[in-house]
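Q: What structure does this chain adopt?
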Amino acid sequence: MTKIDIFSGFLGAGKTTLIKKLIAEAYTGEKLVLIENEFGDVGIDGGFLQDAGVNIREMNSGCICCSLVGDFGKALKQVLTDYAPDRILIEPSGVGKLSDVIRAVENIDSPDIVPGAFTTVVDVNKCKMYMKNFGEFFNNQIECAGTVILSHTTGVSDAKLAACVEQIREHNPSADILTTPWEQLTGAQILEVLEKKNTLENELKQLAEEAQVCPVCGHHHEHEHEHEHEHEHEH
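A:
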């Protein structure tokens, strides 16, 4: 099975830097293919990718989330056939709609594909401005993200950080929002957030599933059954 991760974000937000960090620190041992759009962010250094064992499949004739949606499925199937990767990383153009990219991935008829993380990188210093100037395109990237990662947060005041989080929450109340400066995190820690591993919510849910504990007697009971308990009371 091949997992497909999508990294969206406007020009300069830091998608390329994030992908580099994940390749170096999180995807160790995985066979990767990076699909990147030629225009937009400056492409990741080819030598770096070769050293990391990553194959580049560039989309040369247009935006993969607009004019190439029809050809996108064919190209992706070719990648699966040629490389049989463990994971495909898609870095679309900064002005593309994340929903279009997700739709293109979901429309591919292949039992070998598993949708992975849909991540949007947002520059904390430009969030408000981009929402105002690029409303539909910028907000779409936030609305469709499973995780929003804030970039350039080092030295940013708590008030500015909170204001940015609040703006994002207006468009996506359920996404995980990562505000910690990247240099304080390993790629593996970031990947855990993207893949929703070890989050508090999941831990609590897992504990609840593993052990249904009666709050009265403290015993474990099967979920399907109702139980009556007799307890001794102090008089």
